Amino acid sequence: MASPHAVAITLSAADRETLEAWTRRRKTAQGLAMRARIVLACAEAGTTNGAVAKALGVSRPTVATWRQRFAERGPDGLLDEPRPGAPRRITDEQIERAVVTTLESTPANATHWSTRSLAQAVGLSQTAVVRIWHAFALQPHRSETFKLSRDPLFVDKVRDIVGLYLNPPDRALVLCVDEKPQIQATEGTAPVQPMRPGQVERHTHDYIRHGTTDLFAALDVKTGTVIGTCRQRHRAVEFRAFLDQIDRSVPPDLDVHLVLDNASTHKAPLIRRWLVKRPRYHLHFTPTSGSWLNLVEAWFALLSARQLRRGKFRSTRSLEQAVRRYIAATNENPKPFIWTKSADDILASVQRFCQRTSNSDQ
What we know:
Layout: H1 13-24, H2 30-42, H3 49-56, H4 60-73, H5 92-104, H6 115-122, H7 126-135, H8 154-166, E1 172-188, E2 207-220, E3 226-231, H9 236-249, E4 255-260, H10 269-276, E5 281-285, H11 296-308, H12 316-332, H13 343-356
Parallel strand pairs: 1-4, 4-5
Antiparallel strand pairs: 1-2, 2-3
Helix pairs in contact: 1-2, 2-3, 2-4, 3-4, 6-7, 8-13
């Protein structure tokens, strides 16, 4: 309980240094920093609780409380006292055993641990296992796939394409080009049940196919705009027609750098002849199994998530109309994808990953 009379505060050199450090240090809690300012202000000769409260924007009882606690216990009196509550019943050894068991073993009858099976194995409650997994970011139920590129020119291609993204050439366009083949026009066998309070949108598991279409797209790396068209097939003939569309769409006085994957349609004789006649076009191929370097793949992912995955299309015509609407919406408010990692960062990350895999020497 704070004293009704202001207690005189006399600071030693060490106490003053500690309090001033608390007010300056970035990681100090704001409450503790304010208490330190209160005590420093109270240490000034003739300073009353009311004057300190007015200067620092706090109440007079607050000033009286922390003045009293500092006078009784010094800087330790400004620290938060332990909060009430039941003491922790799970020991550090039990937590370590749960984490090690999760990481270094599997149950006899499964490929991975569940919260219930691990709780039974280590003698903890299921709730405790859930909290431990959350604390250590462990997710045994999840699994992802990976594929390492075996392209002998992997390093050179990474440096080439990343260089285009981070330092594009002057008076030139950088376009990321690819196809999204076999987009299915499907609809459910029953009407969709719309979302309502307490129930998510529901649709039938089975569906009716109404054909497919192939999307050709070119993403302008600088502006985020997209040139796109739908075709019934994706042969070299269709790709050449798409190149003609690109050629009509870009200014004739600019060089054009195309980022492509290694599909055979991109290297066909028909395409090579087209390129010979147009020397302003320069091709940059991604490494084998390295389509993640092509930024148009990120746009394809957005198209699938926002337009295709839950779309219902009764014909390829309606599907293509939906794709064209999304392209138009993208170009009305384009947002370019910003590449941030340097080639050295990528190659170092790939090297570390290879060292953790069993086939890193292959």
